[in-house]
Write a structure and sequence with these properties.
This protein is α/β, with parallel strands linked by helices. It contains seven helices and seven strands; from the N terminus they run H-E-H-E-H-E-E-E-H-E-H-E-H-H. The strands form two sheets. The chain has a five-stranded parallel sheet, sandwiched between helices. A two-stranded antiparallel sheet has the order 4-5. Helix 2 crosses helix 7, helix 3 runs parallel beside helix 4 and helix 4 runs parallel beside helix 5. The longest helix has 18 residues.
Length: 238
């Protein structure tokens, strides 16, 4: 009897070993941020391209609505990240299409502190922590990006970097001012107008606490300034 039970146990164990484990369930694919959804042009309207990080993603839909019937407002299909990412992807983002206006920004990712993993923010005071793109490299990268965008023949608008509030994770309050000063030198040399969004964004209550990001109302408030600057640059405007 014991032999029979032992044989049954062995057979059961062998069968279990041969039975494939169920495949792990894949996490549901996240829907793209609404601002990244591709838009179709309305014939006859000027074409505008927005380049920027999550701050620009926050105001894209409102800008698009504010310029409805005036311009086709596109944006790059991702978070623009630092200037180093811009240099890698700018030609693909510009493509072969004609752009009438390009409204662009880099900054908050450049001045972010990182350590071994560049995808994660690091404590600025931690050992091994460093700026993702040092100030001198940022200025040089911006100058190169400007040249590439100017070659399209589009009107360019530089949008300066919005505030870094005290306590923001992975960033130091005030660094954005240094980066904006470097960017201003590049834009002055290239003759590019500046959308001074830093000043507009400094109004209290627009940003989330200790966060570079904005509330929905804050993003809508920024969108008004962005739409205003783009409108002034559209073809036919003085």
């Amino acid at each position: 009897m014991k032999s029979i039970l032992l044989l049954a146990l062995i057979a059961t164990s062998a069968l279990a070993a041969d039975t494939p484990s169920p495949a792990p369930k894949k996490a549901p694919k996240r829907a793209p941020h609404p601002s990244l959804v591709k838009v179709e042009d309305v014939a006859g309207l000027p074409r505008v391209l927005l380049i920027g990080d999550s701050i620009s993603m926050g105001y894209t839909l409102d800008v698009r609505e504010m310029l409805k019937g005036k311009a086709n407002v596109h944006r790059i299909p991702t978070n623009g990240g630092p200037t180093t990412n811009g240099l890698k992807n700018i030609k693909a983002w510009l493509g072969d299409s004609k752009w009438d206006v390009i409204h662009f920004n880099w900054g908050l990712h450049d001045l972010k502190y990182i350590a071994e993993d560049p995808s994660k923010r690091a404590d600025p005071k931690a050992p091994g922590s460093h700026l993702q793109v040092p100030l001198a490299d940022y200025e040089k990268n911006l100058a190169e990006l400007v040249k590439l965008m100017q070659a399209t023949g589009a009107k360019l608008i530089w949008c300066n970097t919005t505030p870094v509030p005290a306590g923001s994770d992975g960033r130091v309050e005030g660094d954005e001012k240094k980066y904006n000063e470097a960017a201003a030198r590049v834009m002055t040399a290239a003759g590019i107008p500046v959308n001074a969004l830093y000043g507009r964004a400094s109004r209290p209550g627009l940003q989330k606490p200790a966060d570079v990001h904005f509330t929905d109302d804050g993003s809508r408030y920024l969108a008004g300034k962005v739409a205003e600057e783009i409108t002034a640059a559209l073809p036919g405007k003085p």
